[in-house]
Write a structure and sequence with these properties.
This protein is α+β, with helices and mostly antiparallel strands. It contains eleven helices and twelve strands. A hairpin with a 4-residue loop joins strand 4 (about 135-145) and strand 5 (about 150-155). The two termini are about 55 Å apart.
């Protein structure tokens, strides 16, 4: 069965209004009921405090302090009437044995209260609602200075509160029905006009499908329907443009296929490189294991094997860690914990960490740092800067220098790491950020490099919304630059 859009929209508006009124009324009624309960509890707590203070004062101000049970029996009726006069509520006093010692009403409602009273005589507050729900019995302990004197019971009427809630609920129900009916009628009348316009647009689209192109827009309005009418009109004269767009999309798909093939080639190249890089240290480790099997008692060979196997194992561990980190960055959008980071403090920390390694090679580190705060992952920033300074030490000359400069550069900051090494050959400058590229196997063996540090630096910098690049290199050294956006908080 076909249902018109007018009816659907009208019913949707009516349902939405009904849901809104229903939810609002529920929340308001719950709020009123909660407020009534809080006020009742606060009032009864205050009355029980006043009653306890009055009974206690009466007990301690007598010439002699009688037994609490005798005191409540002899004074209970008068105290109950006085407390009722103060509170305006029916009041009953009980002694420590649970017997009624005094009541402000001769015709008090009889209910089973033994359990509830027992809680009060144990020093606890207790509630008890009458069977009809018209009143609440509130029990509170009455304590002397060191002993329990008994308990007080207040009878709080609930009928007025319930009647008030019922009136509010009836008003909400009446208003809700009126809103539903009015919303449905208003929505139906309003959407009737739009449905007629939609019918005209549908007729225009049918004519276009039949090959009858429009001479003017089917709907002339200054809203979304008018825009749709103009779009339908323009569509009838734009078939040629659509064909050209399809050709352009075809070209884009061809480019995408080429890119995928290039990515496949890079993946195969990556796998080949990592296999080669793993093979070299494993071959060395295997060779020393074979030699140790042949000459197990040679202490010099043992010492040499331990050192070499340790270095090759550390190299393998470093390669595995960096490969896993690169894979996580590229495939899973590595998790970031962005926070405001004081770059001056962070760079000073990095320099302090790397100063020991630099000192072993006689390399000095000088800094020129200006205060700056960025919004980034602190651990990733540490990884970036430690990698760059570590490379500046490894590929430097003995007794060389490293210069670390940080300065604002709109709209962020610029960090330069400059070393005094031999520079990077021209044919390697475009490849140093590719995984496993080390600028030559000899250089890799000398420094223990894996060719993964700089690719990881670039990936991490881009994850922070910045970049990393080689900005200068010659026979006197190289400069790597990191750009990071400033924190605008």
């Amino acid at each position: 069965m076909r249902i018109s859009i007018k009816l659907k929209f009208s019913l949707a508006i009516a349902a939405l209004l009904g849901l809104t009124v229903g939810l609002l009324s529920t929340l308001v009624l719950q709020g009123i009921e909660r407020n009534q309960r809080q006020q009742m509890e606060a009032l009864l707590a205050k009355h029980s405090q006043v009653a306890g203070q009055y009974v206690r004062q009466t007990y301690v101000t007598g010439e002699e302090r009688p037994d609490p049970t005798d005191f409540m029996t002899s004074r209970g009726q008068r105290m109950a009437q006085y407390i009722a006069m103060l509170s305006g509520l029916q009041t009953v006093l009980y002694d420590t044995e649970g017997r009624e010692a005094g009541s402000s009403s001769l015709a008090a409602e009889k209910m089973e209260i033994a359990d509830t009273l027992g809680y009060a005589l144990q020093g606890k507050i207790a509630y008890h609602t009458s069977p009809g729900g018209d009143s609440l019995l509130y029990f509170a302990p009455v304590e002397g200075e060191t002993e329990l004197l008994g308990a007080v019971r207040f009878q709080y009427p609930l009928r007025q509160d319930r009647e008030f809630l019922a009136r509010i609920e009836w008003q909400f129900r009446t208003v809700g029905i009126a809103v539903l009916v009015g919303g449905f009628l208003a929505g139906y009348g309003y959407f009737y006009r739009f449905a007629a316009l939609i019918d005209r647009l549908r007729g225009a689209s049918n004519r276009i499908r039949a090959g009858e192109y429009l001479e003017q827009p089917p709907v002339k309005r200054r809203d979304e329907l008018g825009e749709l009418g103009r779009d339908i009109y323009y569509m009838s004269t734009a078939i040629g443009d659509n064909i050209r767009s399809l050709e352009a999309e075809k070209h884009k798909l061809e480019l995408a296929v080429q890119k995928l093939r290039e990515l496949e080639r890079q993946q195969k190249h990556f796998i080949g490189n990592i296999s080669h890089e793993f093979k070299t240290p494993l071959t060395s480790i295997r060779a020393y294991i074979d030699l140790l099997g042949m000459y197990p008692d040679d202490p010099r060979l043992l010492e040499e094997a331990v050192g070499s196997i340790g270095r090759e194992t550390a190299r393998l561990q470093d390669m595995v860690d960096k490969v896993l980190r690169l894979s996580a960055l590229e495939k899973y959008d590595f998790e970031q914990h962005a926070e405001p980071v004081d770059m001056l403090e962070l760079l000073q920390d990095v320099v302090s960490r790397m100063s020991g390694k630099a000192a072993r090679f006689g390399i000095s580190i000088t800094t020129e740092l200006k205060p700056a705060v960025v919004l980034a992952d602190r651990e990733n920033l540490l990884h970036i800067m430690i990698n760059l300074l570590d490379n500046a030490v490894k590929y430097n000359r003995p007794g060389g220098s490293i210069r670390l400069v940080m300065a604002p550069e709109n709209p962020g900051i610029r960090i330069d790491v400059t070393d005094s090494g031999t520079g990077i050959p021209a044919d390697a400058r475009d490849k140093i950020f590719e995984p496993f590229f080390t600028g030559g196997s000899d250089r890799s063996r000398e420094t223990g490099g894996t060719g993964l540090g700089l690719p990881l630096v670039r990936e991490l910098a881009e994850k922070q919304g910045g970049s990393a690049q080689l900005t200068a290199t010659d026979a006197g050294g190289s400069t790597f630059t990191v750009y990071l956006p400033l924190y605008r908080g």
